[in-house]
Amino acid sequence: MRVLILIIVAVAAVAALCAPLPSQAQGASAIPDIEPGKINELRIGLPELLRRFAGNSRLKPITEALVDVAVPENFDATREWPMLIVSASQDPGYNSSRELMRGFVKPALAAGWVVLAADAAEPLTAIEDDTTGMRFAVIQAGLAALKEKWPDSVHWPLAFGGFSGGAKRSGVLAFLATVEGRVPIGMFLGGCNEPTPAEMLDSYGRPLPQFLKVPVFLSSGSSDRIATPMQHREVERALARAGFTRIRLETYEGPHHLSQDNVRTALEWFAAERGK
Fold it and tell me: Which of 130, 132, 148 minimizes the C-alpha distance to 44?
């Protein structure tokens, strides 16, 4: 397991730093105008390097990413904007990051954040095809497209967030981004019953002090029977044992569903912590 994680991390770094946009998406003019205050849909080609990363060194039969982007009404690309990357579970029926993103857009835009989510354009034939490597690849394609449109976006602070299985996946993606060199400013883990950030550190097997400083916001439903309040407290303790120093556990009234109030609170907290 540890060797596999090291290979994934090494390939992720190369893919993220070296992969060019494919010819059909080259140049800012190839990316349509982004309309503020709404969800904008993009179709981005994946270069071979990202396709091989998605397939764990084998060429993944995915050639395009569907990327949704939303920016605030007062968006100005010359300014720095924090960006939330939303990821979904691999569970059938709940595996579209772009669909999950709909619940994050309103609170994120209100907090002054850009939101991005990406899925493979081609249908996945099996749940095993929906790997974290594939998810990281389509996100990288989306970020590369935004870099072509807005060059300064490569320096914007990132946060990762999701709900349920998407929360678990977001912890892994945040870890990969940290190893790649783009340390996130936060992780929003809603309805999350597994401490994936701590598990990734354990699998990595070497110190990563900058990752331990990333704020982690746990969002727990008071009557959630899938990711129970007790399990959230266990996740909080596991993260603390791993060495995470900024953990916040908030409870909302209700079952297993996304709390938009918690999303906004988390994003405002991430920005404030970064300001410190």
Answer: 148
Buried b (16+ CB within 10 A) or exposed e, 189-199: bbbbbbbbbbb
Sheet with 247-252, edge to edge strand ranges: 39-45, 64-70, 114-120, 83-87, 158-163, 186-190, 216-221, 247-252
Beta partners for residue 45, in sequence order? 64
| Tens of pLDDT, residues 123-179 | 765 666 788 888 898 999 999 999 999 999 999 999 999 999 999 999 999 999 999
CA-closest candidate to residue 160, choices 137, 142, 183: 183
Contact 112, 81 (CB under 8 A): yes
Task: Report helix, strand or coil for 193.
Answer: coil
What are the boundaries of each domain within the chain?
A: 2-275
* d(C-alpha 147, C-alpha 24), whole Å: 15
In one letter, which amino acid is 234?
E
Task: Tell me the backbone φ, ψ of residue 179, rounded to 5 degrees.
Answer: -65, -35
Tokens representing 177 are: 């981004």
Q: Which residues contact 1 (CB under 8 A, 6 or more apart)?
A: 203
Q: Which two tokens stand for residue 55?
A: 């397939």
Rounded to whole angstroms, how far apart are CA atoms 131 and 136?
Answer: 9
Q: 43 by DSSP, 3-state: which?
A: strand
Predicted structure pTM score:
0.89
Contact 232, 193 (CB under 8 A): yes
Beta bridge partners of 117: 68
Alpha-carbon distance 75 to 132, whole Å?
30
Q: What CATH class does 2-275 carry?
A: alpha beta
